[in-house]
Amino acid sequence: MTKPRKPRGPYRKSAERREQILQAAYEAIDEHGERASLQDIADRVGVTQPALTYYFPTRDDLLLAVLERRDAMGKATAAAVSTEHTMIDGMVASARHTTDHPGLAKLYVTLSAAATDPASPAYDHFRNRYRTLADEVTRDFATQQRLGEMRDDAPAEHLARALLAVLDGLQIQWMHDPTVDIATIAETFTRLLTGPGATTSGARAEPPTG
Prior knowledge:
It contains 9 helices and no strands. By secondary structure, the chain is an all-alpha fold. It is elongated.
């Protein structure tokens, strides 16, 4: 089987420079949030501000690329834990990844709020992000329902959307009050889905009596 060729010459250098800029932006925003300046990012890489626009034509392009990297790293963190442990462990790890990177969390909340306006440059990014995440979690939950590992008295899609809403809501509460332990609360919520209240083999939970 022929191995894919790696970019060579100027194409490889261009890809490397783009990666350097993206990583510098990720680190600057992690430290300073959306207040991180393009000049700071350019200085970290050793290029001029105009040079940044060759790789990221607008500030919004760069910020969205940083959010995509944040999502990818958060998923990788959760997946690594879930492989060895459980979905709950993965969700807790993802929540802790959020609190470990407050500047990136603030950028996410700020842009996601602005993206509710269809005219926002981030509108398509967040709409597609939520659709993709909801589909992925729904498929995972549906599988767990079939295996009897998750409550099945509600559609998997509804449970998936509820989980995403809880995680986003906890993130906002934590930004207002850093004492909110979003990882522990996320664990509490996921246990409501997979703990003693879970039903199996299509059985429906009966309401409590007395």
